[in-house]
Amino acid sequence: KLALLIIIMSFPFSLFAQQNSISVLNQKAAELGIDASHISKLQERAQENGISSAQLSQILEPAVALADEDLPFDMILQKTSEGLAKDVPINVLSNVLEGLKASTQKAAPIVNMWMQKPGVQNMAGGSASESVKTFRNEVLKSSARALNQGFSENILSGFLNELDNQDLLSNINSSDVVTSITILPDLPTSVDNQELSSELVIRSLKG
Known about the structure:
Layout lengths: L1 H30 L4 H13 L4 H16 L5 H12 L4 H26 L2 H7 L5 H19 L4 H11 L2 H4 L4 H10 L10 H13 L1
């Protein structure tokens, strides 16, 4: 009886703690510019899957953390949505999302430094243009995916520096850059020679 009483007494507090946890997360997400409709849809899907508010807070934390650092978080939300739709176990999904968060954080200083180069900013539309931030976020996302697939930080940095060439920049556009980074880890040569992959893509961009 005592054990049952303890369970009954602790249940409302546990429920309140979960509700409070997701409420705080929702508030912070809204403050950081994360669309409330995305969070609501994920909450609905989580409820359908029998996922607690505490577990939902856990898998949403990586997106909130990236938003707090002014880093792109939409691919985290997309992966979260896909994982919930496929009913992926929470621990597995959480590990995937944490990996993407870590890769984005590793890519950020590499991409941010490259974005400061005048030639890169000119290609993106000028330093004061909103298109520069959009371009930076797209490069960050493709770079994060590459790192998440095991591509080297040093070789990625070297690849971007190779692109800082006026002749080359004048012949390519922002989508070419994003696409070229995206394919780097997928090239067969990247299995044992990532530097060669980098060289091959640079050559193809040069024409």
